[in-house]
Each structure stands twice: as structure tokens, then as C-alpha cells.
Amino acid sequence: MISRRSLFSAGAAVAAASVSRVAMAALPEPVLQTSAATAPPLQPATGRPYRPVVTLNGWSLPWRMNNGVKEFHLVAEPVVREMSPGFNANLWGYNGQSPGPTIEVVEGDRVRIFVTNRLPEHHAVHWHGQRLPNGMDGVSGLTQPSIPPGKTFVYEFEARRPGTFMYHPHADEMVQMAMGMYGMWITHPKAKHPLIADVDRDFCFLLNAFDIEPGSATPKVMTMLDFNLWAWNSRVFPGIDTLNVRQGDRVRIRVGNLTMTNHPIHLHGHEFEVTGTDGGPVPKSARWPEVTTDVAVGQMRQVEFIASEEGDWAFHCHKSHHTMNAMGHNVPTMIGVDHSGLARKITKLIPGYMAMGERGMADMGEMEMPLPDNTAPMMTGQGPFGGVEMGGMFSILKVRRDQKPGDYQDPGWFRHPAGTIAHEWTGAPLAEPTRAPAPAGDATMNVRKPEGGHHGHH
Ligand SMILES: [Cu+2]
């Protein structure tokens, strides 16, 4: 829920117009968000018109108009973010949430952003991808003195180019980004643009990652690569909302990467084109169809497609470890190793002992293993046919014939037309094939030992 501590906000344009000269000379009251739910699009009540975006498990920041300038107020502060139902993390963010709110402006807008620092250390905000005066670029020490705790700085520039951008700290970056500080910035075109299509649905989110030990709540900020929570907008599946669209919609999804590795983002059932990057719209001659696009660190990718196929389509990072939550690592590969008998013997010594992974790791999804409090299940999420066995960077594109225009609510699970679901073969079973005899001297092994995995990690 947005706490409207201010006179101006999404639906309060009338009030904003009547704010006194004295009030306009004061700092705009910051608007805070306490919920991790996907907020409905923020329809512009003042300034130039545009078609707003929907931020997955996020929201857009209301502004006030002050003599033709769009004024926003960001507050950098510690926050508690619900990353998944039952799992809260102590992060740093802006205006009550990590990530911070999406800032939406229109090409040519004069923008003034007040940044109040309520962190225990200094701060500065960089406006990634913008053309702006050098002194507004937000690089602590290089283009400005850092913002001390308790102080408010003012950034002001014109949003010169339409496109998908982001903002993030450029002061003690390693810590502040590891703690969850960043947000999206969308500059909408001021008029019809030959390379920017009108779309029916426009989603955006950031890729981010954390290293939070199971049972704890604060990220380890020194981690460079071995993160255990791969998130979209500081949420992990099944905590990530679905992308709900109407069949035939032109859909745009804008994705930014502020993790420490690349993420090949993959959509089922449709082909898309990359129509924009943080450099702006992509010329039509440079677009090609794909079903996976790699989003490197510090990049934005904006993809578009016609949602022509009805159904519940998986949409996820294609690195399989990134669709897992905490504790995906440091477990030896045990596929093909026969534990029978062993577990019984160990159970005599250690009641409750459980052998993990002899039939693959899928059992983890259903295992009734007690997790420490405040831990996201490793791979979970129930679908209409059972466990989805996913965590982390995973969601679902729901394409429905009867989803109303502008309705972003979850329509529930897809009802498949009769005869269109993969099903069990009920004819004659496969005859046992004749196989070559096992090599001599290997009589005890009836299964090939799997290679790869995490050798040398222990
Ligand atoms: Cu990934």
C-alpha cells in the first residue's frame, strides 16, 4: 500500500495544483511503499501523457509538478523486503522497498530528484544511461561530493532520450548494491516514435542477487559470485508475480541486470525481438527473432512479442542454478549412488537422517525437511499438475483470451482444451532391449558414475 503522506500523488493532481507557494518551496514529502505486491500502472495525472509501465512486484513513484518541473523525492534507507511469502530480508532500498520505485518521465521533461540519505553511510545516485550535465551523473568523488547521512541532495536534468534506464548508487557500490539499492527509470517518447511501438502491456523488472544464509535475513556483502538467491526485483519464485496478458496483446518486457553475472532470459511458446537497450531503441534492421536473450551485467534489454498463444508459459533465466533458492550448492551429486541400507544404518545413529539426491534433486521440492525459520524453500511453487520445482528467477506469462484490457490480475491456471496435454502412453510397453554385457571387473557398479557437477568445490 502506498502511504500518501503527501498532498500530491497518483490520484491527487487537483490537490497538487492548490499547494501553496510556500509548500512548493519545501521538499516534497516522500511517498513510501510498504507492500511487495505489483502495483497497478500509475496513470499520469499531471504533465505530458504516456502509457505507464507495470513494475513486477514494484511500483512507480508519484511526482509533483513545480513550475513545469517534475519533482520526485527518493529516500535511501534500510528496508525489510518480503522476498517470498514467509521470507523477509533486511535490505537497503528507496522509499520503503528494494528495489526503489520506478521513475517514469516523458522525453523532454525537466526532472528534479531530491535524494535524502537515511543510510548509516554516504551515498550518491547514478542515473544509468542518461545524457545529462556531468555534475548530475552521481559518481561520488568524481562528479559530486557524496551525500552524507541525514542530508538531501538535488539532481536536475532534462530526460533527453526515450528508453529504458535504471538508477543505482555510485558510492560504496559493492555494499550498497549487494544490499538491494537500485531502481528502473523509463523515459516514454513524447510523440509517436518510428522505433517505439504502442504496446498493450509494458512490464519491467531488475535482475538482482543476494547471499543470505538460510535462517538469516541480512545479505553477506562480500560475496562476489556464489550468491544463493537469484531474484527479480528482490523477489524469488514463487514470490514473483505472473505476467498476465490478453491473447493478441503486443507485450513489452524491460529487464535490467544489476547482479554479478549474465542472465539468459528465456520465454516459452513465443518468439520475441530485442527492441531496445539502455542505449535506446534498436533500429528495425538490427532486430532478429529469439526465444532467449542474454542480459549482461549493467545492461538493459527490452523485448517485444505478440502474445498469440494461450496458456501458462514459463519465463525464466536459463541458468539452471538461477532457478533455485538458498542451499543449491555444496551438495555432492549422488545420482545413481544406491543409498538403500546405508540410510537405515545411519538413522540408527542419527534419527531423522535423510539421504539426498539419489534420484536427482527433484525430491527436494517435496521433501519435508525442516528449514530454518525465514528461509525461502529451495525449489517449490505448486502448479496445477504438481510441484514446479523452481525457485529464483522464474515466473509465468499467462496468456488468456478473456483477460480484459488493462486488467493485470492473475487469471488462475490455464484450462487446456481437451486432448492438448502431454499424457501417459497406454499402449504396449517398451520391450527390454538386449544390451552389451558390462565390462569385466566392474561387477559392483550397475550405473555409470555421473561426471561434472561440483567437483573440486569442497
Ligand atoms: Cu540467471
From TrEMBL:
It is found in: Periplasm. Pfam families: Cu-oxidase_2, Cu-oxidase_3. InterPro entries: Cu-oxidase-like_N, Cu-oxidase_C, Cu-oxidase_fam, Cu_oxidase_Cu_BS, Cupredoxin, TAT_signal. Residues 1-25 form the signal peptide. Keywords: Copper, Metal-binding, Oxidoreductase, Signal. Residues 448-458 have a biased composition (Basic and acidic residues). Residues 431-458 are annotated as: Disordered. Its main location: periplasm. Residues 87-191, 217-332 form the Plastocyanin-like domain. This is FtsP/CotA-like multicopper oxidase with cupredoxin domain. It comes from Sphaerotilus uruguayifluvii.
